[in-house]
Structure prediction request, 310 residues.
Amino acid sequence: MKIPVTILTGFLGAGKTTLVNHLLKTAADRKIGVLVNDFGEINIDAELIVGTSEGVISLANGCICCTMQGDLQKSVLAVLERTPRPEHLLVEASGLSNPGPLAEVFFQLQKQGNLRLDGIVAVVDATRFPFDDLKGQPLARDQVLASDLVVLNKVDLVSSERVEVIKAAVRQRLPKARVIEAVRAQVPAEVLLGLSAWPADRVPPHVHGHDLEALGYRSLLFRSDRPFDFKKLVQVIEGLPTGIVREKGVILVKERPGDRLALNCVGRRVHVETLGPAEGTESVVVVIGEAAAFDEVSLREALGSALAQA
Prediction:
């Protein structure tokens, strides 16, 4: 299967590196490869480090951190040659860069069959949001407008009214934008990383519910022995409340009888990949969203409406 890639963008001081640190500390059994410009900003616990060589830090939890030296494409391919291979790549872009060219690199790599772009995540500092109407600060604006998911960080340092003003400014240009709130950039890995490496013995995908709930999220596990109507499923996903930020699962669809598909969605981006021949008749979908926007009954009804007619 293709390894999913998340590009992490955001203006200087927004909290990107803090977010990377949080993911590394809470990686559990996820083998994450992190590409950064400079190790100096990453606060890695010395007890986690099991080896360093050629610009790579290996961690005891299976994660690795690499510096982006020279050609990005070569750096990525070097990471993929390591054993074990990462299950997910996280690329922290410079605070002064536009994520567009980075995304283009991964679109090109995607054609080679090893990777797929899972999503672009923009981290925004709620205390220094530079544009209430998305007209000023072109770079910060472009970082937000290119994203599939916006992490509004440091919301504990501003008023709730200010938070709503910022969300409104983003949604004025991106009506369906997924904007999630964070304190000290603590966002669950299940929200940010669309891990697609789900062998049969790990279906349904594991979700660390206690971690989600502690950070203000909820999850729903939906199962059905009926296949989905794929067009209806996409319509349902696109129409979910903006507080629903991630959908992922292993599904069967009527348009592809006999095939098992991996579904990964973040923000407005929907991706489906063929896993192989169907094993059984069950589809499994996990939906993750902010607790305040989570209506389990409505979500089950919406997903049920996307099932193919018997």
Observations:
- The domain at 198-305 is CATH 3.30.1220.10 (Hypothetical Protein Yjia; Chain: A;domain 2).
- The CA atoms of residues 263 and 272 lie 5 Å apart.
- The longest helix spans residues 160-173.
- The chain is about 25% helix and 30% strand.
